[in-house]
Each structure stands twice: as structure tokens, then as C-alpha cells.
Amino acid sequence: MDSAAARQASTAQLALRAKRDRLIGKGLSYTRSSTVVRTKALQVDGDTATLRVVEATSFAIKKVHGDEPDHTSYQADRVFTFKREGTAWKLAGQHLAPAPGLEPMNEPAPVQPEASGPAGSALRGAATGRPSRPVGKAAGLAAGYNYGAMAAYADRYVFNYNSYYRTFSDRGGDCTNFVSQALRAGGWKDAGWPYAHTGTWWYVQSGQTPSWINVNRWADFATYSGRVYGLSNVWYQGVGDVMQMDFEGGTDKDHTMMVTYKDSGGQPYFTYHTRDTYRRPLQDILDRYTTASYWPWRT
After folding, report:
1. Does domain 118-298 have CATH number 3.90.1720.10?
2. Could you give the residue ranges of the DSSP H alpha helices within the chain?
3. Residue 129: pLDDT band by 50, 70, 90 thresholds?
4. Potential cystine with 231: which of 96, 133, 182, 236 (Cβ 3.0-4.6 Å)?
């Protein structure tokens, strides 16, 4: 590494150690990790080389209550820049490739101030303060939804996309498209016509409604149709529930994800597309995005 990259790495290590200590204090620990890197492209322009890779990282989750998932994992695109100095190449820097989704759990970030409001609530949306005891969720609703099927679908296709559906990863993000697929797998029926009405939600091979793929339009449909209602606290979520968030703490939602597991200690785990991630703990998300707004939806 050159001196700038060495400073970047040192700062990153300090930030990640601080995050580790915060999470341990809140009952969440990762015990080991592994990363596999696959090259996507290499471009050399004079004395500068740009290497684009896909990194796949998995973290083992410490068994505090005994029924935590074995691991959480993600895939993300990363860019490395190398500079030639004499006959040697040195790493000059690295960064995540731009994407509209959440950053990986091991991506260093400045510590943000705690959000204002009662019990550590977000600036808008639901509260984020953890309740003193876990809150459960019924196994199903009268509408006949199969929450286990929703979660199983999301966990199955988080990295290996279902070829039946188009992907929108390079067109604003695939997160809501992915959640819509999981909801359909668990019993949500296509609704309405014509194309743009708030009460419509459907996908066919020739197209789909905005509510199928757009974060805010999905929320409009889901609440208008009565298929979801808002929860007052993010920790109340159960398997098959959907959480949306605004990274900047406003009201214009940026991201959609689904709870695919919840342990006996009350920790929900989220699976989502766009920087594809399998069963990321809620506490990890809250630690990284302390000033975001959160909308947890009971499905």
C-alpha cells in the first residue's frame, strides 16, 4: 500500500473496532469471518490500474440465546486503485462501487449522533429503542399469508436471483422488486388494473406496476390496500414483515427489506437485494444508520 491507503486502512480498523465494542455492549457479536473475492474487470491506464471485484463475505454470529442464525453474509462490488511506483504496483485506495442500498456491515463509517426522540426513536417513522422483552408475531393472518414461505423465498434467492423475474439492480435498485416476489410467494395476490392506480400491484412478463418495484409506491399500495399496517417500534417486527428506511432521516423512503428470521432474544434479521445481504441483524443496521427514518410494516 502507499501511505494514503495505509492511513485509510488504519482509520478503518479503528472504526470497526469501535463498532465491534458497541455491538458487544448491545448483545451482538461476530466470532469469525471469511471473504471470497472474484474479479470482474481490470483496466490499466499508464501507471494506474483499476480492479473491480465482487466480494462475498460471511460473518459467524455468536450464540448468545442459542438460536441465532449461524451467519449473516453479503455480496458487494468494490473498486481497488493501484499506482505504479518504479517496477512495483501499490494499492492507492479502495471504495464500494456506487449502489442505492445499505452499506455492508464491515464498511467503516463515522459515528453518527443518536437520533432525537423518546427511547432513541428515529427522527421520523418508528421508534428504535429496544423493548425490555421480545415481542412476538402470530404465525399467519386471516388472509392466509404464509410468512415462512416469504422468508424461505427471500433466503433462497438473495444471491441466486430467480430467473423468472427481471432484475432492476442497474436501474435504481432491486430491493422492492425482490420483496414483492417474496410477498407473492407467501400469498399476496396480484391486484387491480390499470397500470398506475394506487390500488394496483402486479407483475407479468411484459411489465409490472410501479408499486411492484418502487419503494414509495409499494408503501402507497400496501397501506391503501390494507395489506399492511405500521408498527410503532422496529423491534416489534416478525418473520415476513417488511421494513423500509430513509437513509437521511426524512420521509422519502430509500430501501425495502424483509425479516426472514427472529431469535428468541427478539432480534429480527433482514434479507434484501441491492448489496445483496442474508439475515443481517437489526442491531447492526441501527448502529450504522443512527439518524435514518424507519418504517416497519406488519404484513
Report:
1. yes
2. 3-25, 147-157, 175-185, 210-213, 215-224, 282-288
3. very high
4. 236
